[in-house]
Amino acid sequence: MTDDKQSQGTASFLLEMGMLKRAKRSGWWIAGVKDPETIAEHSFRTAVVGAVLAMMEGADPAKVALLCTFHDTQETRIGDIPHIGRRYLTASSNEKVTADQVSAAHPSVLAGVQAIVEEYENAESLEVTVAHDADKLECLIQAVEYREQGYQNVQPWIDSSLGSLKTDSARTLAEAALNMTSLEWQKVYLG
Questions:
Q1: How far is it, in rounded angstroms, from Cα 68 to Cα 52?
Q2: Assessment of whether the complete model's pTM goes beyond 0.70
Q3: Are the beta carbons of 96 and 117 closer than 8 angstroms?
Q4: 58 phi and psi, to 5 degrees?
Q5: Residues 6+ apart with CB under 8 A from 10
Q6: Nearest one of 163, 161, 142, 162 to 151, comparing CA atoms
Q7: Which residues contact 30 (CB under 8 A, 6 or more apart)?
Q8: Residues 68, 34: Cα–Cα separation, whole Å
Q9: CA 102, CA 95: separation in Å to the nearest integer?
């Protein structure tokens, strides 16, 4: 592959990632949320939550944020399939989808992105545990915000997210979020 082809392949991957800004997290439609967050919005906050949790847990914040950033990139190809829908489908693994997504990219990008997704999906380390907790904690926080907006059917998302958390820091932050409003952060500045 020539450098031009590798550049085009890498740029194609970056353009494809832009679809995450337009694709909605479809599971929220089940709860009645009319205009749910996008996959990119979820991934952004998951990366921030992951970095914060990593700091609290003594993990590598940059590594966790990177794992979180790439954890749902495959959804440009397979969509955001709600958990209830997954029982009826046989889909390719996230690792296989990622391999296809970056197959024409620069070799360093190909190897790097594949390694990140492989680690997120299969490794057992503090960073991976924290990244998975960040995904669940972000979902819980989003459900709390939707509940505050009047969507009452989000309790199953709160319960399953809370029950999936592994780290003490994630459980502590979840409990705090459950007892706050989404505008509570303003009290620090507004008194």
A1: 12
A2: yes
A3: no
A4: 80, 25
A5: 104, 105, 106, 109
A6: 142
A7: 82, 84, 153
A8: 26
A9: 11
If one counts the domains in the chain, the total is: 1
Provide the residue-wise pLDDT of the chain in tens; the chain has 191 residues.
Answer: 568 999 999 999 999 999 999 999 999 999 999 999 999 999 999 999 999 999 999 999 999 999 999 999 999 998 888 778 778 877 788 999 999 999 999 999 999 999 999 999 999 999 999 999 999 999 999 999 999 999 999 999 999 999 999 999 999 999 999 999 988 888 877 76
Cα–Cα distance between 5 and 86 in angstroms, integer?
36
What the block records as the tokens of 162 is 């809370």
Q: Which domain holds residue 55?
A: 3-190
Q: What is the CATH number of the domain that holds 51?
A: 1.10.3210.10
CA distances from 57 to 51, 61, 160 (A): 10, 9, 22
Half-sphere exposure of 112 (CA within 13 A, CB side): 8
Contact of 28 with 116, CB cutoff 8 Å: no
157-166 burial code (b ≥16 CB/10 A, e <16): bbeebbeebe
